[in-house]
Write a structure and sequence with these properties.
The chain has about 70 residues and is of the alpha+beta class. It has a two-stranded antiparallel sheet with strand order 1-2. The longest helix has 15 residues.
Length: about 70
């Protein structure tokens, strides 16, 4: 929420289905049971997908960087 990241369907870039949300949620358990390897996988994978994302067919995206805001004094 701090960085404005969104979960999208990995194939279409659209909003994921309800089933994908459920699979992704259950995939967190699969990702954390073996010493959190499924979460660490995010740092290794080219698409930055954890096991829960791969199972659900989703990917997390951030909004495009828009630069800094101008500072106004007085």
């Amino acid at each position: 929420m701090v960085i404005g990241a969104r979960i999208v369907d990995a194939k279409t870039g659209g909003s994921p289905s309800f089933a994908q949300h459920v699979i992704r949620y259950l995939g967190y358990f699969v990702s954390t049971i073996p010493f959190c390897l499924g979460l660490i996988w995010v740092g290794i994978d080219k698409k930055k997908q954890g096991w829960h994302d791969k199972l659900a067919g989703t990917v997390v995206v951030r909004p495009k960087y828009k630069g800094t805001e101008p500072v106004r004094f007085g």
